[in-house]
Design a protein that fits this description.
Length: 328
């Protein structure tokens, strides 16, 4: 498991008094690992991605003679997750569409089947990250295929190859699958945290990101978005906030090359202040590999209003003769 399924299995095993071993990838968020262990499960970290952990878990099952509970490609798991769709219909019976995150496909397969069997007029859409669009590509090729996964903050849906059962259900019941990028996920996580006071992990934020960035065009429709997953490491929250601020144009990093003489630093800081940029960090280097004699290099981080404000600050500094580089 990438972490969410792990906690469900660990909790159920604890309630039933059954020994439980969970295999998770080494890059799984610490919050997911700790929560799983707190439910009494033994956690083994193996492989860099979910699919590596899955392969090891299947080998371990054979060695131990244990029962294996698949994270998504299991009829009982799919049916259980389908209750999410039924709850949505109970609370919003006139919904026009439901949007779910998609990794291996267990959640959306269950939701789509449950919803469509009750009301076939409701649309069900899935969302993946561009860093690992395995289900999207599988539908294109008409069979489950393996894709290479790039690093992503949506670790919960970074599954390189979807399940066979989930693929067949999704092919029949899901209307379409869309993809979002890391920038869109980061901005959405920040927006949900700031406006709704909800901490949603990257995989859970992806369906809303698809809606906000109009990958799925459903204006003036009643839509239910499944924000599945809120496991974010505490020490990662500040980076999410900073990345979200950068992506939305509310925070910027500049490297400014200036003459190494009195008054030059003050000029840069004064220009930033005059343009209502709130200075957060300043570091002036006089010696370095790319710093020539007679010059200094200034690293400066500022709070800004939007991307236009950042462009304005960049242009003013350049027009005043400074060599400016905007950092990602």
């Amino acid at each position: 498991s990438a972490g969410n399924h792990a906690q469900g299995v660990a909790y159920s095993s604890q309630m039933l008094g059954i020994p439980c071993t969970i295999v998770m990838p080494k890059g799984a968020p610490l919050s997911k690992v700790l929560a799983t262990r707190q439910y009494g499960a033994e956690v083994i970290l193996e492989g860099s991605v979910f699919d590596d952990a899955l392969s090891y878990a299947l080998e371990l099952k054979d060695r131990l003679g244990a029962t294996f509970i698949h994270a998504f490609d299991d009829e009982a798991v799919i049916a259980g997750q389908g209750t999410v769709g039924l709850e949505i219909l109970d609370q919003l019976p006139d919904a026009d569409a439901i949007i779910c995150p998609v990794g291996g496909g267990g959640l959306i397969a269950g939701v789509a089947m449950a919803v469509k069997e009750r009301n076939p007029n409701i649309s069900v859409y899935g969302v993946q990250t561009l860093a690992c669009p395995s289900m999207k590509q599988s539908l294109v090729e008409q069979k489950p295929v393996m894709v290479q996964a790039a690093p992503t903050m949506a670790d919960g849906i970074a599954v390189q190859k979807p399940g066979l059962r989930t693929f067949e259900i999704i092919k029949e019941y899901v209307d379409d699958i869309f993809c979002v990028d890391e920038m869109e996920i980061a901005r959405t996580m920040l927006m949900v945290l700031e406006r709704n006071k909800l901490l949603v992990e990257g995989s859970g934020a992806s369906p809303l990101a698809a809606l906000l960035y109009e990958k799925i065009k459903l204006r003036e429709k009643k839509i239910a978005v499944v924000l599945s997953g809120g496991n974010v490491d505490v020490n990662f929250i500040s980076r999410i906030i900073e990345r979200g601020l950068v992506e939305s144009g509310r925070f910027a990093h500049f490297t400014v090359t200036l003459k190494d003489k009195p008054g030059e630093l003050e000029k840069v800081l004064s220009l930033a202040t005059e343009l209502d940029a709130n200075i957060q960090f300043v570091n002036l280097q006089h010696v370095g590999k790319h710093i020539y004699p007679g010059y200094a290099q200034l690293e400066i981080s500022v709070e800004t209003k939007n991307h236009d404000h950042i462009d304005q600050l960049y242009k003013v500094l350049k027009d005043r003769g400074f060599i400016v580089k905007m950092e990602d």
